[in-house]
Amino acid sequence: MKLLCCIFISISIVWADDSGLRYEKDKVCEQLHAMGQPKFKELFIAVYSQKFPNSTLEEVTCLAEEMLKLGEKCCAEGAAADCYDKGATEISDKSCQADSPFPKHPGISKCCAKADVHERKVCLASLHYPADELPSLLEPTNEEMCQDFTQDRIGYSSRYVYELARRHRSVPVGLVLNATGIQTQMLEKCCTPAASMRCFLSERFQGRQFNILLRFTSNHCDNNVNLKSYKDGLTAYYGSILNISFEKAQPMVQDFQAGLSKCCLQPNPECLMQKFTTFQQVICNDRYPDECCTSSQAPWNMVLCVQSLKRTTRTPTDTPPTTALCQQDNHNATERFLFEIGARAVHSSLPVISTALSKIKEEVKACCSDPDFQACMTKEDGHVAKATAFLTKSEEICSKYRTLDFPAFKAMVQQEVAGEGEQAAAREEALVELGTVCCSGHSPALRCQTLAEKLLS
């Protein structure tokens, strides 16, 4: 994986910058020779499946094969010096054709309309499909997996990496490739006449920690990439979990969130693992949660442990918002104001808290331009009032969902919306979804953000 970073840069350069192509071409050739053709192609399938999760396997594979052909042609002895540059331009031109076999994106036509070749490549390289989260990957039976694997091992690996990458599209691609390697190694070992159910159980048991890491990383990186006001929500979230002040929570979370922004979209996972280790050290040096800071805990397991702790109910502050929130030299004033609101939400999920705080933040900015700041901030139909009321409702829904069985929970929601006329059915559906999907510590970022915005409107 040492050269993954270089090859990842080269993937973008096919649709991006012409500078440094000779250097990047050398790295691509080095990686092609080190990985071999099947693994080299698998890398590109993983990257483009993350980038275009709504595309078909055929479209992604077609683009990956073009990259493989480009590497094979331009890495051959005696290849022309401009081979890689010309080939990259041809691929970007092909993506602009009406009958292009490559992944589709609504923004491609806008990019292709640019006359300057360099601008067109940069535009194409920046495309990213913000698709909703896909359902979890359902695993077939052992027999079905073995049949597919033994019939076409390379094809099985390509399909698996495609499905996994489009479901974990915000994590380092190296994690997806490692997960695919673990899966295929299990099938290599267990899909034999002499193997038994015990083989699969043993292999899955050995791979459980990596699966936990992948899901955990995917959740954190999806939140970081997709949530509005994520840093504000995360600060309030950890403030309530660790029962610490804004002054302690803010620098700790700011550093962690900056690390996520830097590391989640890097191809190698080492950067992210180091950030989790640093976060563990910061939390455990102050011995906040003793039960989570054992010496044998892996860093991500420590964070999972912390997130499973019961959040502490905080006493509301009665200090009304003042124009201090508008002072440009008082950067922490608004963040502290949001923290005090968000940290009181001890049952709601991070996507829900972040979305509510995002609306309040918008209102603060708007009210700072209003002659009567106080009246603007406290108006009954404003974002502040709506967002705080929504958080109160989310707290109630999540608390009830955790304590009632589902029929009783649904009956409670039906009774609550009974007097809302034509809107009752839609509101019932939204509140049930809020409870069943958006109250857990691993709530899907985009889905819950969209639902929260709907309930806030």
Describe what this molecule looks like in 3D:
With 457 residues, the chain is an all-alpha fold. Helix content is 68%, strand content 0%. The chain contains 23 helices and no strands. The chain has helices spanning 4-13, 21-35, 37-51, 57-74, 83-95, 108-112, 117-126, 142-151, 153-167, 173-190, 197-206, 208-226, 230-242, 246-263, 270-285, 299-307, 331-342, 350-367, 373-378, 383-403, 406-417, 424-437, 445-456. The two termini are 46 Å apart.
Q: Could you report the average pLDDT, rounded to the nearest whole number?
A: 86
Percent of residues in helical segments? Answer: 55-70%
Q: Shape, please?
A: globular
Task: Kindly state the number of beta strands.
Answer: 0
The low-confidence runs, each spanning 5 or more residues with pLDDT under 50, are 1-20
How big is the Rg?
25 Å
Number of helices: 23
The proportion of residues in beta strands is under 5%
**Structural class, from helix and strand content?**
mainly alpha
Biggest beta sheet summary? none
